[in-house]
């Protein structure tokens, strides 16, 4: 028997969402039910709402939300890792085949049969379209839920489940540590967590930005330097300086100026707008530069990221809004009017239900 819960659903070409009743499946043996407390608002939610990414709909519209925290309310008969009352965090994936080479090494985000996204994905068992965390209740396989460390604030930890792991994976892939020179292009929901994580790993961190209005923020977050990309006099000496650049800029832009800042064998990881077309291959030849991208992570990396954040006290800088102001959050996010991540308090959905 399914259960009904309220959610914020998108059903047209605007960013407007409305509260609707949706159905959550009955618990399977390895499922847990989660009461959602806080859900982050990701820029990819806007991409999905505008149809720029291949999320599916069941005809009723999308329910976004793929970075949330909450409390376990019920468990299936085969669940061993969680019990009712446990605090948990959930990210961008809720299932995978579990058998391919990628799944076996904890990189379910690269599942060769296709991972199941938290919203707009196709359930592997019954074929229904997944609906996300802009809701009061969620049901998922226990394997894709994570115990929320007690030291992390539940609201500020929610964005770690998308923005945090999106930054963590390329930092780990590049072997960033003490002595590494890392630049973060763009200081927003992704970028500010990139600064915190890279600095905690011991890297020398620089923020690259077109404007100077966030220079003080960058230094307060842990960066050692701030470079205006519009200031040629300061940018020219930085050519060949960085081992890794994390490009978190959501808008289309030219990658060539960033590639010129890379050192020998340096890497530019484009995470803010992977839908963008790349540069000419010739741009990579001088210095054996590498162009990569990343989106989310698997269970192994996400667990490691949460443990690292708990150890170093890292969470997102957030503005919490009641979920009834979700449309305001999306509109302001589209304008870049947030420092640095909106998080929706989903508790007000209980008032709408009553």
UniProtKB/TrEMBL annotation:
* Enoyl reductase (ER) domain segment(s): 10-344
**Reaction equation(s) it catalyzes:** a primary alcohol + NADP(+) = an aldehyde + NADPH + H(+)
**What is the E.C. number?**
1.1.1.2
Q: What class of enzyme is it?
A: oxidoreductase
Any Pfam family the entry gives: ADH_zinc_N
Taxonomic superkingdom: Bacteria
Q: Which cofactor does it need?
A: Zn(2+)
What GO molecular function terms would the record report? alcohol dehydrogenase (NADP+) activity; zinc ion binding
Alphabetical UniProt keywords? Metal-binding, Oxidoreductase, Zinc
Q: Which InterPro entries match?
A: ADH-like_C, ADH-like_N, ADH_Zn_CS, CAD-like, ER, GroES-like_sf, NAD(P)-bd_dom_sf
Protein family membership: Belongs to the zinc-containing alcohol dehydrogenase family.
Protein name, as recorded? alcohol dehydrogenase (NADP(+))
């Amino acid at each position: 028997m399914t259960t009904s819960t309220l959610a914020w659903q998108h059903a047209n070409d605007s960013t407007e969402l409305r509260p609707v009743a949706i159905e959550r499946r009955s618990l399977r043996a390895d499922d847990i039910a989660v009461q959602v407390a806080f859900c982050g608002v990701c820029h990819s939610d806007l991409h999905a709402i505008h149809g720029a990414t291949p999320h599916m709909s069941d005809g009723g519209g999308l329910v976004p939300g793929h970075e949330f925290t909450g409390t376990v309310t019920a468990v299936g008969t085969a669940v061993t890792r969680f019990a009712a009352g446990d605090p948990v965090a959930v990210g961008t994936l809720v299932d995978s085949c579990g058998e391919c080479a990628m799944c076996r090494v904890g990189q379910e985000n690269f599942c060769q049969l296709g991972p199941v996204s938290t919203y707009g994905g196709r359930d592997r068992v019954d074929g229904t379209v997944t609906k996300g965390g802009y809701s009061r209740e969620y049901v998922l396989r226990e394997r894709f839920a994570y115990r929320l460390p007690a030291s992390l604030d539940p609201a500020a930890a929610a964005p770690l489940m998308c923005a945090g792991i999106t930054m963590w994976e390329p930092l780990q892939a590049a072997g960033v540590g003490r002595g590494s020179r890392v630049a973060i292009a763009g200081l927003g929901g992704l970028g500010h967590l990139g600064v915190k994580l890279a600095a905690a790993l011991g890297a020398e961190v620089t923020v690259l930005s077109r404007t100077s209005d966030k220079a003080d923020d960058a230094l307060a977050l842990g960066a050692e330097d701030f470079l205006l990309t519009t200031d040629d006099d300061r940018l020219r000496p930085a050519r060949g300086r960085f081992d890794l650049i994390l490009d978190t800029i959501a808008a289309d832009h030219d990658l060539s100026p960033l590639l010129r800042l890379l050192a020998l064998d340096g890497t530019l990881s484009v995470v803010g707008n992977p839908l963008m077309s790349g540069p000419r291959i010739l741009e990579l030849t001088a210095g054996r530069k590498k162009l990569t991208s990343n989106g989310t992570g698997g269970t192994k990396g996400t667990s490691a990221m949460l443990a690292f954040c708990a150890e170093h006290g890292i969470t997102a800088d957030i503005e919490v809004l009641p979920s009834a102001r979700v449309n305001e959050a999306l509109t302001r996010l589209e304008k870049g009017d947030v420092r640095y991540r909106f998080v929706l308090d989903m508790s007000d959905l209980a008032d709408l239900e009553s």
